[in-house]
Every structure is written in structure tokens, then in C-alpha cells.
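Q: Here's a chain of 194 amino acids. Please give me its 3D structure as C-alpha cells.
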Amino acid sequence: MSKVNSGLTRRHFAIGAMSAVTVAAGGSIVHATEALQTPPVRRNISSFRIEGWQDHFDTLSNGAILADTTSRVVQYWSEDESIYKVYPSSVPMTEDLTRLGMTRVTRKVDGPTWRPTPSMLERNPELPAVVGPGPDNPLGTHALYLSWQYYRVHGTGDTRKIGRRSSSGCIGLYNEHIAELFDLAVVGTQVKLI
């Protein structure tokens, strides 16, 4: 015997039961019918944890970027607080690749060139020595270089990485998001990884 899916959910059943009670009481079923036509509320399955800048920075001098490696989100505040942005991100694959603490933007590169780090080459000696700007570049379209050697906030052409532990230490954003953040951040923007 095969099971037939009628397409009814517990929500439909409950609304139907409420309609029957309403009709029995002499009321209208218009509200119940409207409820069936209303699309369900979408939930934030990314589990973003939104932080206040005051908990991490003394001032917003030059703006501030907070990269949360637990909730996999990047937040940006402009110096005058007129701009606030939130972006989903990729984070380092393992704790040993993750560096936490305060740093700053030291250089901005539109169309960056990627070179593997020594630890990347240890893990995979077959990596190319250099990948120039373009769709195959692991740094995506833009990169914010940090005061820590080998660490960047950059784009990625591989959108499957966003929201996951997938990087070798950097914070990755969708290319359209890093392009926006690139325009907002300046050399000297404060960056904190938590």
C-alpha cells in the first residue's frame, strides 16, 4: 500500500479545525482562508549573531570590520555610523588555521594575484605557484590585506564556500559583497576576528 501525500500540513489541519469551530459558532471563515494563502515566515537559518561595535572597538576611527568565525558573519561600521553592513562569510577550516584578535587593513587590491602560503604548499604541493586575476583566482575580485602576513578579507568565485568552514585562514565573502566592502573600507580600517 503506497502512502499518498495530500499536501496538507499540521498548519492547514489546525486552520481547518479553527474554521469549523468558527462556522459552528456562526462566525466568518475569511480569516482562516486568508491565513492559508499567506506564505510561511522564512527563518534565518544562518544563525548570525549580531554584535555591537562598542563591545569590540574603542572608537570607529577609520571604520571597523568585525569577522565572527563562530556565526560566520562579517559586520562593517563606518566612522560616522551612517553605514552598517552585514555579510555572510566563509571562515578557516580548522582552529589551527584561525587567527583571532585585532588587526587592520594595510592594503586594498582590486584584481588580486593569489599565491599559496607555505603551509598550503605543505598540505598540497601540487598547488599552482601563482594565479592571476580572473574567475579562477581564489581571492575573487577584491582583497583587503591585513597587518597579519597571509591573512585577508577577500572575495570568492566559489559561492559554495560562504557560510562554511572552508578557507585556509582568510575570511571570504561573495564577490559582490567584497566589492561593496572594498569601497567602504580604507587603509587603516580596524579589523577584529573573534
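Q: Can you summarize the key feature?
A: The beta strands are 64-68, 73-77, 84-88, 91-92, 101-110, 142-146, 152-156, 165-167, 171-174, 190-193.
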